[in-house]
Design goal:
This protein is of the alpha/beta class. The chain contains twelve helices and eight strands.
Length: 240
């Protein structure tokens, strides 16, 4: 077995939650409908899917404004060095996001950061400022998230990879469900602590690198500390 990395984008690889920055600066989050949907999402009445279906179409026709905001966001400290370490060690990196594919691709291109795979919601701008909306979730048994992170990690595990998962938010709770090791911050760290799941805390990617470089041989042979076995998020469902 070999090691692969799956990392969240907003608030993880990026210092900011880019989606939230867009909604705030473009005042999308100030509309009554979005306020109500956000309340339901925060109270876990709904998942991200219905929120995304309402909120992201409000960015249609606003490519120029979006692009101007993307110029002001930045990678989390150490992210570039971490990606470089993964390349040196032949560890494939998947960026996995419940956000908008357009801004992920644009930011990584501008930052000249190359990863092996980008998976997110296929929401983007086409020619002549046309707007394309879609979600990544193809899990017929569960429509809680826009991007079914758990199914992506589950597939990688079935292909024989040991997974290091890095995240910060609620969708990462599901995404990390099939991982071997988790690096967590923010709300993901709180969720994992509440359920008693082992993880490595981090604030920057230098923290991640310190752990990996110190014990890299153990990670490669599957014997590094805090490895998980059989964790499965309660809400995750998969077709039989």
């Amino acid at each position: 077995m070999k090691v692969a990395v799956v990392t969240d984008f907003d608030g993880t690889l990026m210092e900011q939650d880019v989606g939230n920055v867009l909604m705030k600066e473009l005042e999308v989050d100030a509309t009554a409908q979005v306020i109500e949907m956000t309340r339901q999402y925060n109270e876990r009445i709904i998942g991200s899917l219905p929120w995304i279906e309402i909120v992201y179409p409000m960015l249609a026709g606003r490519k120029q404004e979006v692009d101007e905001i993307l110029d002001r966001v930045h990678l989390r400290d150490g992210a570039r060095d971490f990606i470089g370490f993964c390349k040196e060690e032949d560890v494939p990196v998947t960026v996995l996001s419940d956000g908008m594919l357009y801004y992920i691709e644009q930011i990584l291109k501008k930052q000249q950061v190359e990863v092996d795979q980008i998976i997110g919601n296929p929401i983007t701008y086409l020619g002549d400022n046309q707007f394309q909306f879609g979600v990544q979730n193809e899990n017929a048994a569960c429509k809680w998230c826009g991007c079914c992170k758990a199914s992506v990690v589950k597939k990688l595990k079935e292909e024989g990879w040991m997974i290091i998962y890095i995240g910060d938010g609620s969708s990462d709770y599901f995404g990390s469900g099939f991982a071997d090791w988790i690096f967590a911050r923010s709300s993901l760290a709180r969720y994992l602590k509440e359920e008693g799941t082992a993880f490595y805390p981090f604030q920057t990617f230098y923290d991640v690198l310190d752990v990996l470089k110190t014990d890299w041989d153990a990670f490669k042979n599957g014997k590094a500390a805090r490895r998980l076995n059989g964790r499965h998020p309660v809400l995750c469902k998969f077709p039989v």
